[in-house]
Amino acid sequence: AGTQRLRGRSHRLRWLGGRDPLTGLANRRRLMDRVEGRASGPQGFTGGVLMIDVDHFKRINDEHGHAAGDAVLAAVARRLRQALAEPVALCRWGGEEFLAVLPDAALARLPDLLARVMGQVADEPVLAAGVALEVRLSVGAVAFPLAGEAAPVSWDTALVRADLALYTAKALGRDQAVILREVQADSEARRRVLATDFAEARGQGLVAWTAVPRQSGVAVNESRKLA
Predict the structure, then answer these.
(1) pLDDT one-digit tens code per residue, 148-177
(2) For the stretch 44-56, what's the b/e string if a residue is b when 16 or more beta carbons lie within 10 angstroms of its beta carbon?
(3) 13, 46, 71, 118: which sits with the fewest CB atoms below 10 Å from its CB?
(4) Does the annotation count 96 as an active-site position?
(5) Do residues 22 and 16 touch, judged by C-beta distance below 8 A?
């Protein structure tokens, strides 16, 4: 009986060690343990990555206090779990960012899925300390294999591409998702720009994307052609 109690306690500690205490979602380390192996095959990483950011979160903290900010993050986590009914890996990536890894089967419906994610969070305000807070998301989405990559994509590169998509969603005005469709990574110089200077990558035309507004879920506002 004592051994069973110790085993149960050990299992609970491992579970807690892999969870974000505020939202109950997996933390960054736990998600990475689950998905890093998916990039080990000859095709590199396959599937989808969503990088999700709560718009203007600092303003919520500054105007309503950190308790309100915590309530928003907990509510966003619950709503993301509801919207992402697929068997996905979902975690609090850090601060006000969340990360989801999608199975291949979800990629064909990606615009609809993104609209559902944004709508699930934004359609009802979050109540915190008697105040109804409107919450909006910016989302960067990438499906792999990604057109234009010169080599199989590692997990680290997949994260950089998702971050590029999220950056673009914010640069276009927030409250929307951006699907990265293609990159031009055919030289070391271009790969370096794609990894380190997102504004320059867009300026050089090294990326192609499609924006998905929250209200419709219809993909619009496609980028210009690649250089």
Answers:
(1) 998 899 999 999 999 999 999 999 999 999
(2) bbbbbbbbbbbbb
(3) 13
(4) yes
(5) no
